[in-house]
Amino acid sequence: MSAVSPVIGKVKPVSDNEVTFTVSPDEPVFAGHYPGFPIFPGMCVVELVHRGALRTAPAEAGDLTMTAMESVRFVAPVFPGDRLTVTVNWTKDRDHWRCAARATVAGRDAAVVKLRYQSGGDR
Amino acid sequence: MTADVREILPHRYPMLLVDHVLDVSPGKWVTAVKSVSRNEPWYRDGVDGPYPEVLLVESWAQAAGIVLGVQKPNPDVLSGQVMLFGSLSDIEFHRPVLPGDVLEHRVRVSRVVGETVIFEGECVVRGELVFTVSRMVVAYRPAEQLRAAEGEKQT
Question: Is B149 touching A (CB cutoff 8 A)?
């Protein structure tokens, strides 16, 4: 079973701290966000950061559960056809894992995101 | 004053993530609910688990859109003033959400600075805290600004 997600497409690993994602016009969210003017929802950009984070997580972290969005800053809108690059930086802080990430399109920031996780399945 | 979410928000299926407004004080606060269903498209075959955090926050943010939108409904994202996500700080998740859960979003305006509005609040399921939002900043901007951003991308 894969995880529940509003984004159908898959992220592609580029390196140990980078993934890319091309926003297909066929993503189901576009039908309703918004009719006649498709904009990739900001929270879907955060979803791709989350997936990029899980793809690049340090092996010792094990299974990770998101415990916080520490900060999210939306810098520019993302449209169908855009190619997003997510670059992550993992750090460990006592029992928490932190992932600081940038999502860029054509070298420009779309979102700057800090997520916090904990190891193990339960919150 | 309408409390029909489709007359207030521009979002539509499958991204209209507020079902019903329980109570609203225009410009101040709102309480709104969303039922999480296994029939949402994200629960397609071969997929299972908790409702994604990003959709929890999207749903809460849409509820926030009702606080001001109820006075100036704008279901068309191509005209008038549109609400743009600016930033979020310190959203803490306390328990997972599963199909069958009914989210109750409680959203309060904490500050208004010109066309920028700052919200705070929480979401509960059956009285239990699901997540808290310390700060969400949105900006109301003319729809043309969004269209201009799209035009720029295409050139």
Answer: yes
Q: What are phi and psi of B61, to 5 degrees?
A: -65, -35
Residue B123 has pLDDT above 70, yes or no: yes
Q: Please, which residues have CB within 8 angstroms of residue B4's CB and are 6 or more apart in sequence?
A: none
Q: B138 CB near a chain A CB, below 8 Å? A: no
Distance from CA of B140 to the nearest CA of A (A): 14
Domain membership flag for residue A63: yes
In angstroms, what separates the C-alpha of B137 from chain A's closest C-alpha? 9
Q: Give the ipTM.
A: 0.96
Tell me the per-residue pLDDT of A2-41, one tens digit each, with 9 for 90 and over: 899 999 999 999 999 999 999 999 999 999 999 999 999 9
CATH number, domain B5-154: 3.10.129.10
| Chain A residues with at least one Cβ partner in B under 8 Å | 1-6, 28-29, 31-37, 39, 41-44, 46-47, 50, 66-74, 76-77, 79, 82, 123
Does B153 sit within 8 Å of A82, measured CB to CB? yes
Give the closest residue to A41 by CA, choosing from A54, A56, A28, A55: A28
Residue A5 lies in a domain: no
Question: Does residue B76 surpass a pLDDT of 90?
Answer: no
Running DSSP on this structure, what letter comes out for residue B104?
E
Alpha-carbon distance of A5 to B47, in angstroms, equals: 9
